Structure formats: C-alpha cells, structure tokens
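User: I'll paste a sequence; please echo it back and then give the predicted structure.

Assistant: Echoing your sequence first, then the prediction.
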Amino acid sequence: MDPFDIHRVGEVMERNVPTISAATTVGDFTERLRRDANLARRQGTPILDGEGRLTGIITRSDLMRALDADPSGAGNVLDAGTRNPVVAYEDELLRDAAARMLDRDIGRLPVVDRADGKRLIGYLGRSGILAARQRLIDDENRRERGPVPVIS
C-alpha cells in the first residue's frame, strides 16, 4: 500500500515554522536570510499579517524577481510574494496535498487549521514529503525483515 494513501499531512509536516511579517521589506528579509540558517534552508516562507494570520508566501524566486525589479529592496515581502497561497490541512491525506502541489507546480504548502484557514499550523514541502515516504518505506522494510539476530 502506498504510504501517501494512509498517512495524513499532520504526521509529516514541519511545526514551528519560521515566518516573516507582511510589513518586512525585501531588503530586510534578504538580510535575515543571510543570518538565519533555519530560514535560509527552505525555499518558501509564510507571510503573516499584523495579527499573526497567514496572508501570503514568498519564495526565493519571488525574492530574486523583486530584487531584479528594485535592487534597493525597498518593497515589502507581501507585494513580492504570493497573496492567499494554496494551502494544505493537517487532516488531509498526503496523496491529496501532493497532488495539489503537482497540479499547481508548487513545492510547498503552508498548513492551516481547517476551521480557520488563516491560522498557520505547519509547513509541508516536497523534501518533507519525500523524507516521510522514505521513512515509511524504511519502517516497512524493518518490519518485514524482523529482528536482527544477535551473534555472540
């Protein structure tokens, strides 16, 4: 059985996701990326409004386009990024979230509360999905082989 058909987004999503304020300038965000290894390792960063609600996402590609258009970096990240991003829900099957990513040609989905579509609760990226799949396959292989005999 395909692990994507039985596991939910909430089982593999990242929690405690670094975010950026919608009021942050592109220049300030670029500086923050240089200093913050946890933030720099990801391709997309959720953008939160002044009330801490998901309002967009900015990718490295968005950032490069914004800096090409205005090398001063004076624009804000919300204008440079995507407003109202495609999202995932922690209770949905991985298969459905992965299909949405493929259909929209995107590599990451902010995970939001189904009852409150602006409350960010996690982040699902391609690398997370693939790592989860590999982990599930490894677990299955260990179960099939059984315990490793101890040789004395």
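Helices lie at 9-12, 26-35, 37-40, 60-69, 77-80, 94-104, 126-145. DSSP finds seven helices and seven strands in the chain.
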